[in-house]
Amino acid sequence: MPSPVLLVIAHGSRDPRHAATVHALTERVRALRPGLRVETGFLEFNAPSVPRLLERLAAEGAEDVVTLPLLLTRAFHAKADIPSVLREARTRLPRLRVRQAEVLGPSPLLNAALEQRLYEAGVSPGDKSSTGLVLASAGSTDPEAIAVIAEIARELRHTGWCAVRPAFASASLPRTEDAVRDLRADGVRRVAVAPYVIAPGRLPDRIFAGAAEADVVADVLGAAPELARLLVRRYDEARVAERFAAAG
């Protein structure tokens, strides 16, 4: 039987850089898994929408789809938005089997991609012990998502950075600029900011604006090879979980 279609679900943005980055990432996934059909759908702003794409897949004869939220934490979109869209699709398209894979984070692959972006921005591994790091995420009102970011900051602290502070572009505090200033106040002379976001857009732009006083500012994670490998891993994990559930 053919492998299930991998449907990557991105939020979408009015900023054209967002969709371009998402498509570049899914192209990397296709290169990693030749023969696997990989599609991209958006919750808003960009086309195709997830419902329209599922309708098209069903019309083309697809029977099995693994949806993968392009999200770094389990917050509103992963817990409510996407499940609601998929429930409606299952009702309208009863012959199409639709499953939701886990979100991307947390993962050592994400941490590796983040540090690689920092190295590309000018931080060397030997600089870590004298550099404070601001882990800047989009932000959320979901306590679980905020706790995940705090835990990632603690993990990164144990990899050699002299200090690591989480920061948020919206919904939560502190903001990026406040975290940079707090590190300075604690005596950290060199500060780097690492955006823990996948694609450019409004909230990442806030992170970059707030990083004006930092010494080093990394790029967004983007179409990093580590992210492409992680998407394939989450797809495979969803298939394995389904087989175990069926066997049990």
Can you walk me through this structure?
- The protein is an alpha/beta fold and 248 residues long.
- It folds into two domains: 124 residues, Rossmann fold (3-Layer(aba) Sandwich); 110 residues, Rossmann fold, CATH 3.40.50.1400.
- It contains eight helices and eight strands; from the N terminus they run βαβαβαβαβαβαβαβα.
- Helix 7 links the parallel strand 7 and strand 8.
- Helix 1 packs across helix 8.
- The longest helix has 23 residues.
- The radius of gyration is 19 Å and the shape is elongated.
- It starts with a strand and ends with a helix.
How would you summarize what this structure contains?
With 248 residues, the protein is an alpha/beta fold.
List the helices and strands and how they pair.
Elements lengths: L4 E6 L5 H17 L5 E5 L7 H10 L4 E6 L6 H17 L4 E4 L7 H14 L9 E7 L5 H15 L5 E6 L7 H10 L4 E6 L6 H9 L5 E2 L7 H23 L1
Helix pairs in contact: 1-8, 2-3, 4-8, 6-7
CATH class group of the largest domain = Alpha Beta
The radius of gyration over CA amounts to 19 Å
Beta-strand percentage range: 15-25%
**Any idea what the CATH architecture of the largest domain is?**
3-Layer(aba) Sandwich
Uncertain segments are none
Largest sheet: 4 strands, parallel
Number of strands: 8
Number of helices: 8
Which percent range fits the helix content?
40-55%
User: Could you please say which CATH topology of the largest domain applies here?
Assistant: Rossmann fold
Strand order of the largest sheet: 2-1-3-4
Report how far the terminal alpha carbons are from each other: 22 Å
Query: What structural class do helix, strand and pairing data support?
Result: alpha/beta
Order of helices and strands: EHEHEHEHEHEHEHEH
Mean pLDDT: 96
Shape: elongated
State the domain count.
2
